[in-house]
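Record type: monomer structure entry
Structure origin: computed from sequence
Chain ID: A
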Amino acid sequence: MLRLLRGGFFLLFMAALAAGGGCTLLGFAASKLPQTVKPRYQGFAGQSVAVMVWADRGVRTDFEGIQLDLAGTVQTILQNAKADEFEKTLWPYEARSIVRFQREHPEIEAQSATEIAERIGGITRLIYIEIGNFTTHSDDSLQLMRGQVTANLKVIEITGGKAAVVYDESNLHSLWPKNQREGVVNIEASRVYQETVRQFAAEIANRFITHYAED
């Protein structure tokens, strides 16, 4: 029966095309197809890549693991994506190794992203994320929970020991839940934190891989 229904729909569809409504129907069908979004930066394939997260001191005080959690999630998404943009890409460092480097060298707090990239060694690309603000509570009420993050994003290329910023995006802003700007109740702060990190990491990763546009 299902096969017959499908066949009947196909015949009706073809009849409509023959009747002159083909362009309209094809346009409607095309509008319903998933739309792909191209990467904003393409230059990771065959390179050695690391992810580093810098966070404001106040953010690190409230969320001690934010650097490791965000960097690790971004790296995991990109590694598991199996995208053409990351074909033969090497990941010489785990996120925790980069965080350890940051903690063992507090002097890099005063250095630029390019200076830091030149010090890491063994990489040719650095995804550098600067978090300026991260909260799990609504600005309107402490009773309302809402994840919010504001950050800057850079991609740094290292060639012959010299680093240069080749992609720079400022004031990235993300909310979780996306469609709840006032906040939600009866939810643990730990879950808001985890979901906000996961969502923001996915938004960053989507800047570097071909993906379907959201509705």
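Annotation 1: The chain is about 40% helix and 25% strand.
Annotation 2: Confidence is low (pLDDT under 50) at residues 1-18.
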